[in-house]
Amino acid sequence: MIKGIGASVGIAIGKAIVLPNWEWNVPDKLVDVADLAYEFEKLYEGIQISKVELETIKEDISELIGEEESNIFNAHLAILEDPVFMNEVQAIMQRQYKAAEVAVKETIDKFVGMFDLLDDEYMKERAADIRDVGNRLLKHLLGGFQDTLPDQDDPYVLVAKELTPSQWTHLDPSKILGIVTIMGGMNSHAAIMARAIGIPFVLGLDGKLKRPIQTGDLIILDGEEGTVFVNPDEETIAHYRERKEIIQKHMERLEQLIDVQAITQDGKPIELKANISSVKELEQALKTGARGVGLFRTEFLYMDRNSLPPEEEQFEVYRQVAEMLHGEPLVIRTLDAGGDKNIHYIDLPQEVNPFLGYRAIRISLDRQELFKTQLRAILRASHYGHVKIMYPFISSVKEFKDANQLLEEVKKELREEGQPFDEQIEVGIMIEVPAAALTADLLAKEADFFSIGTNDLVQYLLAVDRMNEHIAHLYDPYHPAVLRLLRQTIEAAQQQGIPVSVCGEMAGDPKVLPIWLALGIEELSMSVKTLLPLKERLLQSSIEQSGRVFEQIMQCTDSDQIRNILDQCYNGKERYGPITN
């Protein structure tokens, strides 16, 4: 067994087809001064052909993966228009008298090398984009053709060092059982596209293979566990075939719950909402029975582009989502940039610890025009549905008041312009900083609602970077300190009579559900994939039983004891049965 990173859930069993790397070997080539004009003409023609090709690809693939995900190719078009990238190519040609393809190859290598050295997943993914776009341009400059897969009638498991968006366009998704890549990250374009289509995907096998995977090898991959087997024995094959069948039958049972009201056995209704980043995710959430959106991550509107999204573009997205919800709540979180979400054109400073630095509401309050543009778009969209505003990373009453002061300025502008919006729009706080949790009683007097972001709250409370492989095991949502702080925060909100929801990963964990029911939480917001499993657990739960469980765990002195009690309460039932291999 090889342990990688699960990027898209599901199990795949099939023969491997290894995708050749799409890279070009470009020998150094000098040209005469007289030939430079021809080389520049060749470069501009190659750029134009590449642009047309990308526009066509985007249009063709949008039907398959959705309009939001197909915007990946906007980032590729932006690279071809990026003056920094193209100035570097032209400088090499003019000063060193090198052929267009040589200058492009050297520029690719330079920028990819620079980004790969940065300890930033977003920038590493941008390096992959530059490589992909550069190789497309080189293809036209060299007059070559991209290697494609051989004709394959039977479905297969695709294996590649790295899978680029351009390579995707040469594949038939109906033939792909699953995907394994040696490189890449959870937020790579390949991972995003695989999740959009629903293809199991495991990545991050670099340095873990005893030998390279070869075409014809039998592969088993589990996209949830992040495991890969190469030429496994019959027992393992039989086990995963059975497990795949169990998963399929369980998913069919869960689908029967889509239209069932989320209510406990003792009659307490709980609102189950979705966390989304795009219109495509909302479509999936509505199909799964989500009752609104508890967290719309707007930062993804700002990524994969070279400039800030204008007000009108943001407004159209927010309006569309609000209308699609037909009156169900839509909680829009304002820009949460910084930390692990670097937006290069905002020119965020290089920081030793960006998670504790210039991010989220701190950026918005500092760059007020950026913030006000987003607030204008959200307010205008509030005319078309039940929209709420939520500020991220609030750590004090002053920050919340400062943000609301800007909101009032925007409201005044819109009134003067005659633009309609919801005058009574609710404004809340995402509780993800310990300082906010500890002063929840003060913040609750100002805010209309709280939403607890458990991911950041846990890591800040325990001083553990959950993305750091050396200490990730210390990231422990069951730590007694976490549970005590959650109880304190929720009680502060309840005392002031404001609603409080949960939108972090703990919200969608069926094992944690007794804690939320015991604490009086009436709204949980989660990723689409966890909504039905949580509803299934909810329908089997009661407030009374959850209260008894919570009393037990609050007497525990360590997280292992707490985890054991919750496991026992869950009756030992894993979603798909225990994994024995």
Largest sheet: 8 strands, mixed
Number of helices: 22
CATH class of the largest domain: Alpha Beta
**Helical residues, percent:** 40-55%
CATH superfamily of the largest domain: Phosphoenolpyruvate-binding domains
The CATH architecture of the largest domain can be given as Alpha-Beta Barrel
Total count of domains: 3
Shape designation: globular
Radius of gyration: 26 Å
Explain the overall architecture.
With about 575 residues, the protein is an alpha/beta fold. The protein has helices spanning about 35-65, 65-70, 70-80, 85-95, 100-115, 120-140, 165-170, 190-195, 235-255, 280-285, 310-325, 360-365, 370-380, 395-415, 435-440, 440-445, 455-460, 480-495, 515-520, 530-540, 545-555, 560-570; strands at about 1-5, 5-10, 10-20, 155-160, 175-180, 200-205, 220, 225-230, 270-275, 295, 330-335, 385-390, 425-430, 450, 500, 525. The protein has three domains: about 25-140, Enzyme I, Chain A, domain 2 (Orthogonal Bundle); about 155-230, Glucose Oxidase, domain 1; about 255-570, TIM Barrel, CATH 3.20.20. It has 22 helices and 16 strands. The strands form two sheets. An eight-stranded mixed beta sheet has the order 1-8-7-3-4-5-6-2. Strands 15-14-13-12-11-10-9-16 form an eight-stranded parallel beta sheet. α10 links the parallel β9 (about 270-275) and β10. α1 (about 35-65) packs antiparallel against α3. The longest helix has 30 residues, at about 35-65. The chain is globular and about 80 Å long. The model is unreliable at about 570-580 (pLDDT under 50).
